[in-house]
Batch of 2 targets.
Target 1
Amino acid sequence: MRRLLMMVFLSLLVYFGVSNIALASPITFFGYDQGQGSSSYERLLEWPNAKAAELNLLQNLENTSKESFEEIGLLNRARVGYNEVSSVFDGKGSFAGSGYSLYCNYDESYYGQYPISGFKYLETANRFYIEFEDPIGAMGFYGIDIGDTDDHYRDPTTPATLRIRVTDSSTNEMEWIEVPHETGVTSGGIFYFGFYDPDRTFSKVEFVYIGDGTDVWAFDDMTIGSPVSPSPVPVPSAIWLLGTGLVTLIHFGRKQRH
Ligand SMILES: [Ca+2]
Ligand SMILES: [Ca+2]
């Protein structure tokens, strides 16, 4: 009896131990449309590759909230600090950052930065982060004029690149998610980057500026959500066997006592 119980305990340990180890990395999406050139600050009129990446991500999500920055009360060419914009994504998140980290609403290309939707977007040359009231399982965003490091202001030997860092809400661990954008590309390009994780949720997403080069970036049409729930998975045979084993054990134990 004791040996049987020990075997049940060991099977449980193996089953749950293995499923904990099998945590997958986030699944990522990326699409890039090249800008018109470093001497031209004309905006792109369409961005099919970036758009396709956005649609691919959204197909995998539910409970989405989109932030287009259009609701933020700004006059043309005005800027506000992060502390003035505490509620985004339908009130589910808030931005924070420091230094030159501002919202803008230029309705034309400003040195390569411009909006995707409407005429408002987020413009920054610094690290910023978004914190979420309830943890999210997915996020995507448009990045505009990111990676044109051989252009004005920039140090081409240490180009400015964007990386994002997520905080796992259950373990508080930080993890980098690489944004696979090029550097040394033309001004005014547009990419879409997104990720979802079927196994974990995130309470904080940090946009981190790496490199000594100075660059100014724009972000627009960010979406948060959760991965579409998988259809009910049939109970694994191991669990069936375990259950059947336990029932037999209990039955056997009772019989012995009687
Ligand atoms: Ca917008
Ligand atoms: Ca730029």
Target 2
Amino acid sequence: MSHISDDRIPNNVDLSSDKRLQRALEQWQPQFLDWWREMGPEGFQGRDVYLRTAVSVEPGGWAHFDYVKMPDYRWGIFLEPRQDGRLHHFGDAIGQPVWDEVPGELRNMLRRLIVTQGDTEPASVEQQRQLGQTAPSLYDLRNLFQVNVEEGRHLWAMVYLLQRYFGRDGREEAEELLKRRSGDGDRPRILGAFNEPTSHWLSFFMFTMFTDRDGKYQLSALAESAFDPLARTCRFMLTEEAHHMFVGETGVGRIVERTCELMKQDANEDARAAGGVDLPTIQKYINLWYTLSLDLFGGEQSSNAADAFAAGVKGRYKEAARYQDHTCLGATRPVEEVRDGRVVTSDVPLRNAMNEVLRDDFVEDCQRGVDRWNKSIREAGIDFQLVLPSRRFHRAIGAFAGVGTDPSGALLTQDEWSRRQSEWLPSDADEIYIKSLMQGVHEPGKIAQWIAPPRRGINGQAFEFDYVRLES
Ligand SMILES: [Fe+2]
Ligand SMILES: [Fe+2]
């Protein structure tokens, strides 16, 4: 069924036919709303925001745009329709029917994957909760809130799986998802990048560019899953996710564009002197958020990744469409590690290198975005290139965890690393400067001086459109 019901919990999974599950989710719903009020966007909760809401899961016309107050957003459970006769298409069970229930021996693995994915969704809302006051325009303010409500919906997507397929454990996990807090000393979120402060809009755009893009690749890998409800859930989440990355890539792109304009207005090409963000500082934030996001893929060699692939639980990006060999037995992939102070490369079984394979696709995708930013710098006639640092740089997970390198990946002594890291990563002074630029602009058609306006508005509306109604 692809029709979305207008029950108390909108859904296309025929929730009303499963009273036990419906009751469990209806009990969780007020806890979610309490969490949203406490940890969701600060301020603006009583304002009308021009938001899209999913009204169908059909491609084309799935979204409806209208003014909504955020607490009234229709968070719900939307899975892509099932395809009859779907089979395992990778791993050890190729050709066997996919699962509609969780196989006992995979229960722990699946629960861990779903909880880890689910935890990132509320975490990002928490990280971004104070950005509204300093939004550079109403257009950006609206985009922030769109991302926030959809991350809330992604939490619903994972909580549905937990409550429907994991019994009492699932219910407990669903409650824990509302209890952990991003950056909290005692009960932090599960993954590193989701505990980092996102305290200004430059970090917000970097986060949606790089960290949401990690999400795209994780969801894509799970969209291949032989646990069919997980695959169908992730496919629909990817539809929403595309906008988040658009916000990030165009957000950084608009800063770059404005920076170039300001450089040309200043005799010394000094963007900071003209009240903007200079290109070297943008580079530092790329270095930070790109590498935090690289860590989210996990270690270069991972037996968990091998097990998940073997079981048919987590595939490669576009596994079905892009590969011929779907067993990956006998194949290898080179991975790097540090031995006796030197980088050595060795071939490891491909299944054990699946994190690295997924990271390859992520890196390539990020590079395409950076190329587009560089194109606009070039077109402005400015001699500067933004780059992605080496994947050895500033890592906290995997073979290069805690290994000091420069952005090109050359090894450093601990001493050099501590002495030089503020050349490559944002310093306290950079943070203070960026925050000093963040003065909210909340008038239709106006924009802060450090960022260019977008080429077009949302859903065919003009940039000047009243995306968040502040008078009322
Ligand atoms: Fe998400
Ligand atoms: Fe997202």
